[in-house]
Amino acid sequence: MSLVSYKFTKKELNDYYNPKVIAYRYMTNSINAIGFGQIVQKTSVTGNIIDTYYHIYDFATNSMVVFNPTLSQNVPSEEAGPTFWGVSSIDGLNFLNGLTTIPNLRKLKYCNNCSDANGLILPVISNFENRFTQLDSLVRTYNLLDGFLFYETNLPRYTNVFPSVKYDDGVNISYFFKTIDGTDKTLEQISEITGDVSAQIESSINTAPIFKPNAGVNSVITSCCDGYSHIIFGQYPQGMILFNGTLENSYCWYVESLTNEPVTIPPAFQFTSGGRSCQFCISTHGCPPICETILMAYSTNAIDVCSEVYNNYYIAWNVGKIYNFEDCGGLSPASGYYYDGRTIYYWDGLSITDYGTCSTCETRYFSFKPIADFPSLCVAPTFAYEFDASTNMLYNQSSCNTTVADVGYYAEFGIIYYFDGTTLSSYSRCK
């Protein structure tokens, strides 16, 4: 079949693919500048990589350097031996030039059409860098725990892959794509490019396997609510959504990977399917409130709340709710306006929204004319208005932060002001 999709978890992107993207970016930049670049790896006696160095072109010095990200240090090529590898300058240069070896070091050379290359060719690493850069961008943009690479193998190589994500708002599922050069595409546009019907593309993504499944007797699960991870007993399919209604910090969990590490949640806690996605699970079951104590005043009036007495409440920012003090997740107080000394919030019984700040208005008396009739303005009777000096806003009497005064010219104590609907500014003087 010409349609192939693979799933990649956010953890895989962070732990494996994004570091490779950085490494390949060093290589492609160096190749484009001077024709080659090298990755040097220090290994343990068992062959595990314990440090990495990049032999690359440095645009700041217009020369080749060896860069060690662990130390955030780069040195000229001739200094790499004594600085990083415990050998002489000559031995270090000979190693970089392929003339000798150094124990526990291995080198991958990337270049254009050179005979001693042992790394991948430039088009391959450039395509790898581009597709995983775009995939990571999509996953981060939509705050997801996985993403996909969708391939139409009938298209030419290097142009046949489209990073994508599946976004679920709890009701509808939407598919978003990018080309490897970063151009955003819709499902319909990908269908036009590939000649495949949308349903086939959706099916390919929905049934995509994990590209590099790992092994283990237990499962690493990540909270759909706060992103914290735990290890539970047993093997669950990577990417599956699990539900448990009794855990304190999350009901919905994403199976990140398998592991042989010991469990952090006792086996007595049982999990069932949480549905098609994290967001669907959250929209169905919610998230447990994480409460903190907050001191707030309350009133049914947004102005009066600023002068009311303060009382203790519980507030759970993660779910946008207010609860009675010492009753987290239980009963909520009456709907109305709450003020914490900085911000007024409106609580409708279901969710919190920012309303504004308490008034800093003072009552002032102005005469008013909608046009620049200054002789008449300066002798006209005055009326009370509310002026907020912190914003230079002018409001009608007893309407601070609510009813804005009319646009026009105002006079007070012989000074003429102009109000444009947002700012009261000095304009002239009465004569």
What does this structure look like?
- The chain has 4 domains: 11-121, no CATH class; 218-285, no CATH class; 292-356, no CATH class; 361-429, no CATH class.
- Helix content is 21%, strand content 36%.
- It is built from 8 helices and 27 strands.
- The mean pLDDT is 94.
How are the secondary structure elements laid out?
Layout lengths: L2 E7 H25 L1 E8 L5 E10 L4 E6 L4 E4 L3 H6 L3 H8 L8 E7 L10 H20 L4 E7 L8 E8 L4 E6 L5 E3 H8 L3 H9 L11 E6 L5 E5 L7 E3 L8 E8 L12 E2 L4 H8 L6 E8 L10 E7 L4 E4 L11 E4 L4 E4 L4 E5 L4 E9 L4 H6 L3 E6 L4 E4 L11 E5 L2 E5 L4 E6 L2
Antiparallel strand pairs: 1-7, 2-3, 2-6, 3-4, 4-5, 7-8, 8-9, 9-10, 11-12, 11-14, 13-14, 13-15, 16-17, 16-19, 17-18, 19-20, 20-21, 22-23, 22-25, 23-24, 25-26, 26-27
Summarize the entry for a quick read.
With 431 residues, the protein is an alpha+beta fold.
Structural class: alpha+beta
Q: Please give the domain count.
A: 4
Helix percent reads 10-25%
How would you sum up the global shape?
Answer: extended
Radius of gyration: 32 Å
| Beta strands, count | 27
Q: Look at the structure and give the mean pLDDT.
A: 94
